[in-house]
Amino acid sequence: MLIRYKKAFEKIAMGLLSFMPNEKDLKKLQQTMKQYDQSEDWQLFLWKEEDIIGLVGVTKVSEDMLEIQHISVNPSHRHQGIGKTMIKALKDFFPGKEIRANEETSAFFEKCDSLLS
Fold first, then answer.
1. CA quadruple 83, 48, 1, 110: dihedral, nearest 10
2. Where is the N-acetyltransferase domain positioned along the sequence (predicted)?
3. CB 63 within 8 A of CB 53
């Protein structure tokens, strides 16, 4: 289930974000979390089953377009279709909006998107 990020989930969100190649540095990771906390155009969602095992972060590009900035799944839960499920849930959460990937998330997004089509 896709849930909105809350400050109470900060540590788990930072842990999941740290799996992204460009988020390894603690200062960079803290800046990213601050961006999600403070900017209305940046939204972070967590994927919860029994525990929180994934995350997807988007930015509002325009009224009808979102761009995926981050997508991450706990390594012990990978290769089970969770990333694809998160993309589908995100599309369902924002009906009528185009969702695209940024440079960092494009390869993963294209793989998931082709499986959804």
1. -10
2. 3-117
3. no
Strands 42-48 and 2-4, bridge-based pairing: antiparallel
CA–CA–CA angle 43, 45, 48 (5° rounding): 170
Ordered by where they begin, the domains of the chain are 2-116 (3.40.630.30)
Smallest Cα–Cα separation from 74: which of 90, 50, 55? Answer: 55
Q: How many CB atoms lie within 10 A of CB 2?
A: 17
Q: Are 56 and 47 in contact (CB under 8 A)?
A: yes
Q: Which residue has the higher pLDDT, 92 or 114?
A: 92
This model's pTM is above 0.85: yes
Give CA separation, 52 vs 13, 22, 34, in Å: 9, 21, 20
Half-sphere exposure of 59 (CA within 13 A, CB side): 11
